[in-house]
Amino acid sequence: MSQPSDIEIAQQATPQPIGEIGEKLEIPQDALLQYGPFKAKIDYGFLRTKKDNPNGKLILVTAISPTPAGEGKTTTTVGLGDALSKIGKKTAICLREPSLGPCFGMKGGAAGGGYAQVVPMEDINLHFTGDFHAIGAAHNLLSAMLDNHIHHSNELGIDVRRVSWRRVVDMNDRALRDIALALGGPGNGFPRQSGFDITVASEIMAIFCLATDLEDLRNRIGKIVVGTTRDLKPITAKDIKADGAMTALLKDAMMPNLVQTLEGTPAFVHGGPFANIAHGCNSVMATTAGLKLADYVVTEAGFGADLGAQKFFDIKCRKTGLKPDAVAIVATVRALKMHGGVAKTELKGENLVALAKGMCNLERHISNVGKYGVPAVVAINRFTDDTDAEIELIRSTCEGLGAKVIACTHWSDGGEGTVDLANAIVDIVDNQESNFTTLYPDDMSLWEKTRTIAKEIYGADDIIADDKVRKQYDHLQALYPNFPVCMAKTQYSFSTDPALIGAPSGHVVGVRELRLSAGAEFVVAVCGDIMIMPGLPKVPAAEGISVNAEGQIEGLF
């Protein structure tokens, strides 16, 4: 008998009423703003009463560089949370909300898989509580008010040639990358070239996930730079008088969402910037809520550790004072064999030669995490055709680097399949001190911050940029010298070439442009051919998604 699909497993489950999930974290019913029986937002007022609670232990789940074979980072995050609950720990999980772009594209949903999922899976992967719609609406309100200001008076003297604020939509739509606006005559405004980014790349998304409360949210929104005057004076959202209305659109969205795993572990699913084009972490509001309400909080950062974990440490933790206590690095035998040069169609069957060759990718991620002073354990997301010899090769190699290896079977066994990992994590946080540090100091120049990430994390020899980009560095250095750098780069390689798998060294990282995120307080370095607006694949996942006669969604994965 074949294994049921992820959506079939989720639909066969019987979730607990969300009030019962809240009780596990001592959240009273009147602090839950319910969106039906199985999802709710948590009231600001209640969270403020818990601000002086001591923080629980913070565990980050990251992974090797992703491959088409899959790694299972979210699945492992859920499985570890369930396992911690199973061994008696008061636990909460903190995840990002999925984007509709990859859900309908190539990647599919992002609510875990098998018997390690968060539910209601269909809601979480689609409209959920409307947070992404609110973020997109706030972003595009600023776009509309900006163009409206230029059309009616342009009292601020905005240089139409230097408007940097684009529009967003939460969809993979390559046709919107570069467009012309305001065609059709004077009544439609001043024509200019612009385009759309995907919502998860919006600065509003970054601000949403870094703001600590509504006041901080409005202050950050007000600092967004939308363009300049002819003499290069920055024009902000506050100058456009859009910050108040934008905050109003985000008022409800800013409250963390509470759902549950298949096994009833509380899960905060809130915010969702991509890690390859944004900073890749769920909201500070949700993470902080988890830490104040639970003894153990398991969170994830997007894609491989070179992107998600690096940004979690150097942006999210730097900006908030969060200090992770342990890291779990997820890997699969099949993904490591792909990094060793094996095609996806040839992964079945033991191949110790390819596995040994691909281990360089995991080894570099272990080394990189070690640079931040946080103890790490390797979690092998084990498949049924993985051999004992393959697991032993990973174990012996990693233990030589000082990293313990735990094989997990959470996809098929839920929390029970991750108990060994949970015990290892508890042992680490109870007996090993985290000496967390960031990779570079605040006062390092923006150019050197970029170079440090490229050399220390990517194994590059250097970075390069043309004169136009170097002038951007000089300009932003003068205005925002203490901002961290957020690298926008392919997730598939340590380099900017997605075909360079394994652990390439000696390459050069080319910076194509800089984007200022003044409200989020970082500078985005766009590298290589990374797209801020992705496109759909030849056969998008959307082709297989439908609704049956009973009103159930089918085809989500």
Note down, in words, how this protein is organized:
The protein is of the alpha/beta class. The chain has 3 domains: 216 residues, P-loop containing nucleotide triphosphate hydrolases (Rossmann fold), CATH 3.40.50.300; 115 residues, Domain 2, N(10)-formyltetrahydrofolate synthetase (2-Layer Sandwich); 82 residues, Formyltetrahydrofolate synthetase, domain 3, CATH 3.10.410.10. Helix content is 35%, strand content 19%. It contains 19 helices and 25 strands. The strands form 6 sheets. Strands 1, 2, 3, 4, 5, 6, 14, 15, 16, 17, 18 and 19 form a 12-stranded mixed β-sheet that branches. A 4-stranded mixed β-sheet has the order 20-22-23-21. The protein is globular.
Mind sketching the topology for me?
Layout: H1 6-12, H2 18-24, E1 32-34, E2 40-42, H3 44-49, E3 57-63, H4 73-86, E4 91-95, H5 100-104, E5 112-113, E6 116-119, H6 121-125, H7 131-152, E7 158-163, E8 167-169, E9 179-181, E10 192-194, E11 196-198, H8 203-210, H9 214-222, E12 225-229, E13 234-236, H10 243-250, E14 257-261, E15 266-269, H11 284-293, E16 296-300, H12 305-320, E17 326-331, H13 333-339, H14 352-370, E18 376-381, H15 388-399, E19 404-408, H16 410-413, H17 419-431, H18 446-456, E20 462-464, H19 467-479, E21 485-488, E22 508-517, E23 522-527, E24 546-547, E25 553-554
Parallel strand pairs: 3-16, 3-17, 4-15, 4-16, 8-11, 17-18, 18-19, 20-22, 21-23
Antiparallel strand pairs: 1-2, 2-14, 5-6, 6-14, 7-12, 9-10, 12-13, 14-15, 22-23, 24-25
Helix pairs in contact: 4-17, 7-8, 7-10, 9-10, 13-14, 14-15
